[in-house]
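Example S7 (structure tokens).
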């Protein structure tokens, strides 16, 4: 198996803690939750950031985990994480086009237990390729060989790719950019996932303002220098000031982020 070396920045303490809670919550989603889609309503909400870090944490926790970059139209991960691929060209696009096989497109990385199916070559219209049975076969094979498959995807509203991939996943995590994504858009995304029978494992409130009261209460001593935070829950409707807080259907505002998990009901 070929190897890719990549760089991931060290996370601020509060973010690392939040990501760690996400990792643990996903662990409790049951043994059949393997193919996990990280999605969002709009561009730039933080899907790639969350998915890369979740992948790394799962791997570091000892789970054989593979990251699949399905953002075939505009993936930025190769540059962002300084991928050193030593001349390797085979990627997800190659596999979907029939130019490469499974063994050629799964790479080991410098993260122990962390594997990757990268996207080196951008495609203009990958929808037809993602619809092809080869993609489903890839995910099925990965599900046999790896404990978790973390799938980074394009936003749900822009192109059909995200919803298409959702049909082949065991569950999705919806990333919501605090203060930016409207309630109606979030509702629309919930509905889109429901329509394709993709279970919503949870939502992540990303890019939360760190100057709010709730943030200070929980993360006050770590606040200096941190520009962001994460929170998890089921619902929507966060207020901008609820920094790093959890939004939840039963409690509309979130001081108690410890209360909720990504999916308590799916403990198979
Ligand atoms: N919590 C955060 N705090 C600060 N910056 C963040 C945070 N999350 C993501 N970013 C930054 O926001 C930008 C967009 O993030 P990212 O690429 O992860 O979003 P995306 O949803 O994958 O975007 P796209 O829809 O284009 O794929 C990046 O520059 C990233 O570094
Ligand atoms: Mg992205």
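Recovered sequence:
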């Amino acid at each position: 198996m070929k190897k890719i070396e990549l760089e991931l920045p060290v996370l601020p303490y509060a973010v690392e803690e939040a990501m760690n809670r996400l990792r643990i919550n996903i662990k409790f989603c049951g043994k059949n939750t393997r193919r996990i889609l990280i999605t969002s309503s709009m561009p730039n909400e933080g899907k790639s950031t969350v998915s890369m870090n979740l992948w790394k944490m799962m791997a570091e926790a000892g789970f054989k985990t593979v990251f699949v970059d399905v953002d075939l139209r505009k993936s930025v991960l190769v540059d962002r994480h300084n991928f050193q691929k030593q001349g390797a060209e085979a990627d997800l696009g190659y596999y979907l086009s029939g130019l490469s096989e499974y063994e050629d497109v799964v790479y080991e990385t410098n993260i122990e237990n962390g594997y990757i199916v990268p996207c080196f070559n951008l495609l203009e219209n990958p929808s037809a390729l993602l619809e092809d049975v080869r993609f489903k076969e890839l995910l099925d094979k990965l599900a046999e060989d790896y404990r978790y498959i973390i799938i980074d995807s394009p936003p749900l509203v822009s192109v059909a790719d995200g919803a298409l991939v959702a049909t082949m996943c065991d569950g999705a995590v919806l990333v919501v950019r605090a203060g930016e994504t409207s309630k109606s858009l979030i509702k629309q995304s919930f509905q889109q996932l429901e329509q394709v029978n993709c279970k919503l494992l949870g939502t992540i409130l990303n890019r939360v303002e760190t100057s709010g009261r709730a943030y200070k209460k929980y993360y006050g001593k770590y606040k200096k220098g941190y520009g962001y935070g994460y929170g998890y829950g089921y619902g929507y409707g966060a207020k901008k000031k609820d920094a790093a807080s959890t939004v939840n259907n039963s409690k509309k505002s979130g001081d108690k982020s410890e209360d909720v998990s990504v999916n308590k009901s799916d403990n198979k």
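Notes on this example. Residues 40, 43-49, 71, 155, 206-207, 227-228 surround adenosine-5'-triphosphate (ligand 1) (CB under 6 Å).
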